[in-house]
Design goal:
The protein is α+β, with helices and mostly antiparallel strands. 25% of the residues lie in helices and 36% in strands.
Length: 290
């Protein structure tokens, strides 16, 4: 992998917003707060503050080579406390380092999905990426770089978001025909892994092909529009859309489900669906969505 690409990925792990650099109190160490501390550490070239945010065996993953997967190979040169220290000591010693800005984020449970803009000195165009952090007990456990905007996918974002919104609208109308028409014939539905340190890389047990998808959703929508989805947040990088939904079901009064997922959309059709995090509560959650 080219040195500049490795450096960009390394510095992306320091990303997002700024907050005070000292160790975060356990009660305040939310994923957003922990991830926000990264950029201040980078700007201050404070290696110790940065390392204090990562678990001893934190895993950092490069971009996937297979477009049907979210997780790329683990970056072995950053795995383990000693190698992480060595990699970032070198990155922070560079005379001119990239400037990183978070422009969008979604958080639920242990996960934060972020859209970051990386301005690299000497590079005419910024690098835009989607990253996923898992934060547990106040420390970053896993960091995945899931997609980078490129000439091939840059023009897909607006259409991908439009397809995502159409999915929600047809679902809320219990329009099975309209909903199913938004999926490619070979669309892959994944499920959350039993391993908490992996993303949704396993195929759904119920939806394995077009016929099973048709059967599952027609049975679901035959019950009417009692299932309602509210989009709380969504953003796209290339052909990937990250979305945060709130789901209520009249058949389960008082129960509220929140779900963070990533969709891959091409030419107006969903090609892959990865559910990343689900939280179920027994009462309505306050707040408004958009």
């Amino acid at each position: 992998m080219p040195r500049r690409t490795l450096l960009t990925l390394a510095l992306a792990t320091l990303s997002l917003l700024s907050c005070p650099i000292p160790a975060l109190a356990a009660a305040a160490a939310t994923p957003a707060a922990v991830v926000q501390a990264d950029l201040r550490a980078l700007n201050a070239n404070d290696l110790e503050a940065f390392l204090a945010l990562y678990a001893p065996q934190a895993q950092i993953f490069g971009l996937p080579k297979d477009p049907r997967r979210l997780a790329g190979p683990r970056l072995e040169q950053m795995y383990g406390a000693d190698r992480l220290r060595a990699s970032f000591a070198k990155a922070m010693a560079e005379p001119a380092t990239p400037k990183i800005q978070q422009t969008e984020s979604i958080t639920l449970g242990e996960l934060l999905v972020g859209k970051v803009r990386i301005d690299v000195p000497g590079q005419s165009e910024p690098t835009v990426m989607m990253v996923v952090y898992r934060v547990r007990d106040g420390l970053i456990q896993d960091l995945w770089h899931v997609v980078r905007e490129s000439d091939d996918n840059r023009g897909q974002s607006a259409a991908a978001l439009a397809t995502m919104h159409a999915l929600v609208q047809t679902s809320n109308r219990a329009d099975a025909d309209g909903f199913l028409a938004l999926f490619a014939p070979d669309s892959r539905h994944n499920r959350m892994s039993d391993d908490p340190d992996r993303l949704a890389e396993e195929q759904s047990k119920n939806i394995v092909d077009a016929a099973s998808r048709d059967r599952v959703y027609r049975a679901l929508y035959a019950k009417g529009d009692g299932l309602q989805v509210q989009t709380l947040a969504a953003f796209a990088v290339g052909d990937l859309v990250a979305m945060h939904e709130r789901i209520t079901d009249t058949a389960k009064p008082g129960e509220v489900k929140e779900l963070v997922s990533i969709l891959r959309v091409r030419d107006g059709l969903v090609r892959d669906l990865w559910p990343l995090q689900r939280v179920v509560t027994g009462a309505a959650v306050a707040g408004t969505g958009r």
